[in-house]
Input
Amino acid sequence: MGNSGGAATHSGIDFQQRIAALAMIHMLCGITDLDFLGFGSGMQVDELRFETEDQIDDLVLVGPGGRHFVQAKNTISVSGDPTSEFGSVLAQFVGQYVSDNRPGDVYVLATSVEASSRVRKVLRKLTESARLDQSDSRSIPLTVEERDVLEKTEGIIRHHHEALAGDAISPEGVQRVLARIRICSLDIREGGSLEAAALLLLSSKATVPPRLLWGGLVALAVSLARDRLSISTAGLQDRMGMYMSERPGDRDSEESQLFTGDLLAGLSYGREIVLARSPFEEYDFVIADFKRFDDTGAKRLNFANGYVELAQGQRWELIGRWATSAGLERYMQDRVEEYADKQVVVLAANFTDDPSTAPAALAHGAHCANLAARIENTFLCRHCGDHISEDGAPLVEVDEEGSPADIGLVHEACRTPTDRVLGGIDAALFRENRRLRNFDYKGWITAVQGGQWLFGGLLESSMKLAPISWKSEYDDFSQGGWCVKASLEDGGANYVTDRGRVKRFSADHAARGAEVMNDHISQAREAGDPFCYSASGSMFGSYSQLLGLGHDPVPCTGAEAVRYTRAIGDAYSDCKQYYAPLAYLVDVETGDPIVVDGVISLSTIRSSWSRTSGTGNGAASNCPSSPCRQF
Output
């Protein structure tokens, strides 16, 4: 006998545990955006239950907002047979509804990109319609395929409800069951976009190679499922937290309160360590240590336009200023060759008491902590506003005459001589990826989930080399209430998309578009090479083209303009970002893109993530798990 059944079973188990591992990453990193499971943002997961006693027993995500029951099926097709795999899934959904019906419960059918398009798109549209419109779904115009899927789904729901509850379910009850169902298509396979996002999240937090930790989480999921156990966020931290550089509970907010009030208030604010060009002819530079505040709490020095003005009226041209001697020493050590042959005079201070413990210094520290609390994005440079992704980026206090008081991270290249350096960040992630200058890790992670659909489509097409046309004049202002539906020979339908999303038109434009499409369909049919969609609905072209690419072509029979609905958009739009995220190189001095022979090169990252790669790591929120060190 063959082993196809065993392979299929193993594939399904792997798919289920990869979903669980992805949920555990979100728990470890404190991420509340579970859009990958169709939950949207703000879904906090406190507990993960495996192979439970619930009717929907694969996986249960529990949080303050309710329970999300996940049934994972790598591949599945619609069937009208209550004993089929599809019927078994609906039996679990109905069983949960009958036995433990709680407000807010959600029943998730998680599938892969290999599942039938009748599940991934048609059933998704029908369940979205039921959720968005609590009236009878039959009042909505349906295609032959959609009506067939709806009739089979409703028939199975009625069958199992009567078997379990002993009575017939009302049409309103069927609607309520449908409204609780979410259909999620996840590319979590090896090298898929969600696995890439998972590794990127781990890269920002893990103290071990992210792929190793990813494998450990999948193995943990397998073990928990085998023993039918549950794990809470605290329990997960106990098991895996040792491999993470920061616990999410240590933060004041997900947006990364990297610099807490206690940390900032505890830094040194009572001293001024300055490096300046020497006013003495026999020396090149002068290092001086000053007490920052006098007995009345007034500042003893004035900083402006790259100079420090002393109480006696002297002005020195500044190289830099620091809160501690250690910060200056680090600066000099990093530039040993620059200062090796220079004459430097040190004007040391002899303080009776530590100036940093003076009331004025302590009050100023509390003031700086309040300034930092207002920062929305810690990893935006306080000077240029660009993202920071460099190890050792200075934490500075902006304290200059004529400039508003401020505190936060800056690029070393943006640091001005009058910036008072308090410390800096210690980020292994940034050290190991120095080529990613000013890189927006959070933006990349956010965009990769639901992004890069173009490249996913190329994988499905099996093309080794594919030309890509960039539609640079695209506008996203088309918010008409109509779209174009293509009817298929097998009774199904598809919708005209643009960049992976259902294209919206005005009524006139949709009618004209359908007319043009019908002309093409007729001409192709007469030529003996009909216009078709692939069985998955992700590709279209002539019969011969799709057949040559290894697809099962389904001929189009006609096109028509139909009303656009959110359910159609959600079910038949394949992505949020068609190209993005993409990266390109810029000149560090000018900020202009690098152009070679008139070409700007764009790069996409899908897999091959590693701690040593120059382009593979990222941050879960804005923060690369980087503790602040005081210089």
